[in-house]
Specification:
The complex is a heterodimer. Chain A contains no helices and eleven strands. Chain A is mainly beta. Helix content of chain B is 0%, strand content 57%. In chain B, strand 4 and strand 5 form a beta hairpin. Chain B is globular, with a radius of gyration of 13 Å. Classes of the chains: A mainly beta, B mainly beta.
């Protein structure tokens, strides 16, 4: 997984609970991404970061917040979980993002919201 | 809007050849990726095309026609381990990846 780790691997939440997903890289990549993957749909970008201290919204940002205080870590937060946020969440880093951007993914976090 | 189309599912026989098609309509084009994703796992990089033509990499080849908005992934000498989903993704004008829903490939003995 190109040195990308995600914690936790699996989590069950009740509606309204909050949690933070952690993505960590052991290299020095600037670009990091959070996606969600749902059955029958393509990967959808939630938020991304182009460097330490910067974040930007993707295609489906509502209900999520992110922070990139340290270059190695990209955190995804759910302030008040909803059943619609049941999904598999993947973090990715990009190598050479403006010329043949190749994204390498972490192993994923499976989230179930009851 | 932006759109990536791939067949939902395909079935092929071990040892055979299969072609998985991908058509796209996006705001700008800065390359096309193919990823492989085994069930329960993360996507892994297979190929990248930015110029028209065929890129060969072992048993896998990827073709691109920018004028037709079309790509295909060709898998030769299919093995049971090739059973997976294959994801097509296009880099748009903002250098964001737009993903297709994936093609589930089932290999039969």
């Amino acid at each position: 997984n190109a040195g990308v780790t995600q914690t936790p691997k699996f989590r069950v939440l009740k509606t309204g609970q909050s949690m933070t997903l952690l993505c960590a890289q052991d290299m020095n990549h600037e670009y990091m991404y959070w996606y969600r993957q749902d059955p029958g749909m393509g990967l959808r970008l939630i938020h991304y970061s182009v460097g330490e201290g910067t974040t930007a919204k993707g295609e489906v940002p509502d209900g999520y917040n992110v922070s990139r205080l340290k270059k190695q870590n990209f955190l995804l937060g759910l302030e008040s979980a909803a059943p619609s946020q049941t999904s598999v969440y993947f973090c990715a880093i990009a190598v050479d993002p403006e010329g043949g951007e190749t994204q390498y993914f972490g192993p994923g976090t499976r989230l179930l919201v009851l | 809007g932006q759109n990536i189309d791939q067949p939902t599912e395909m079935t092929a026989t071990e040892g055979a050849i299969v072609q998985i098609n991908c058509t796209y309509q996006t705001s700008g084009f800065n390359g096309l990726f193919w990823y492989q994703q085994h069930a329960g796992e993360a996507p892994t990089f297979l190929s990248y095309n930015v110029l028209d033509g065929l890129e060969e990499k072992g048993r896998f080849s990827s073709f691109l026609s920018r004028s037709k908005g079309y790509s295909y992934l060709l898998l030769k000498e299919l093995q049971m381990k090739d059973s997976a989903s294959y994801l097509c993704a296009v880099v748009d004008s903002n250098y964001q990846l737009i993903w297709g829903a994936g093609t589930k490939l089932i290999i039969k003995p």
